[in-house]
Amino acid sequence: MSETDSGFFNQMKTFLKHRVLMTQLEWTSWNDNALHTITKNVIKHKPETILDIGCGDGKGVIQIANCFNVNCSKIHGVDISDASLEVCRRKFNVIKIDLEKDDLPFRNDSFDLVNCNQVLEHLRNYRQVIKDAIRVTKNGGYILIGIPNLSHLINRILLLFGIQPLCIALDGPHIHGFTHKSFLKLLMSLDRVEIIDFTGTVMYPLPYFLAKIMSKHFVGLTGYTCYLLRKK
User: Fold this and answer.
1) CB-CB contact of 110 with 93 (8 Å)
2) How far apart are CA 75 and CA 99, in angstroms?
3) Structure confidence by residue, pLDDT tens digits, 4-29
4) Which of 144, 158, 186, 211 could form an S-S bond across to 206 if both were Cys, CB 3.0 to 4.6 Å?
5) Are the beta carbons of 75 and 64 closer than 8 angstroms?
């Protein structure tokens, strides 16, 4: 392939990635999807206390808190990364824990809203983390869980050609892969919670504008799914 052809293909690849698929909006898409899922369902009982499990840089939980005018002193986050905790410590309360070994260091029925977005796929004991999230949620409170969807449209296509799905890359950070249907079944089996809503976002290889439309009707084909639970 000549340098001219190589340059052309690189330009086309960049155009498709950033102008058609708009992959640069991936983080914003799953974060905004979680925010939309909460705000459209949590209307009457607005949260006053929030826990973010795997808080990262804290941007996601701050956005949620701002929507409900929650004071930063009422936000708590847990993470294992010292760098993330250092950033978040300037904004809200944080505690360092290893979710693989430690229980959440909070009393039962402590929070109105518990957020756990894009975390469970990194853990071996994800079931225990879900149960612990329910434990620290107040009766009538909400648990928001977001995961990458193994049955994403692009993953189905890749598997047809014997290629490893994106969300469980061999050398990637994810330990588990969940399909929307299997994860929904898991949530339905839990005691003391009811599923309020579930939504999805991103649908590669569809163009961004088309994916936004299709994701509303075919959640099981989206790249990231989000589930809102309420504790009974």
Assistant:
1) no
2) 19
3) 545 544 554 454 444 444 455 565 77
4) 211
5) no
Task: Please list, residue by residue across 126-145, b when 16 or more beta carbons sit within 10 angstroms of its beta carbon and e when fewer do.
Answer: beebbebbbbbbbeebbbbb
Q: Are strands 50-53 and 224-231 parallel, antiparallel or unpaired?
A: unpaired
Residue with tokens 């701002």: 66
- Closest CA relative to residue 166, chosen from 180, 151, 181: 151
* Spatial contact of 193 and 231, defined as CB atoms under 8 Å apart: yes
Tokens of 80: 């294992």
- The distance of Cα 130 from the centroid of its chain, to the nearest Å, equals 13
**pLDDT per residue as tens digits for the range 165-174:** 989 999 999 9
pTM of the model: 0.89
Any idea what DSSP says for residue 178?
Answer: B
Peptide bond into 205 cis (omega under 30): yes
What's the maximum distance between 2 C-alpha atoms anywhere in the chain?
Answer: 65
Q: Which residues pair with 193 in a beta bridge?
A: 231
Instruction: Give all domains of the chain, ordered by start, each with its CATH number.
Output: 3-149+179-231 (3.40.50.150)
Q: Are 78 and 95 in contact (CB under 8 A)?
A: yes
CA distances 49 to 39, 91, 92, 109, Å, are 15, 15, 12, 11
Strands (E), 22-157: 50-53, 75-79, 93-96, 111-117, 137-148
Closest CA to 35 of 60, 15, 6: 60
Retrieve residue 197's tokens: 């809503």
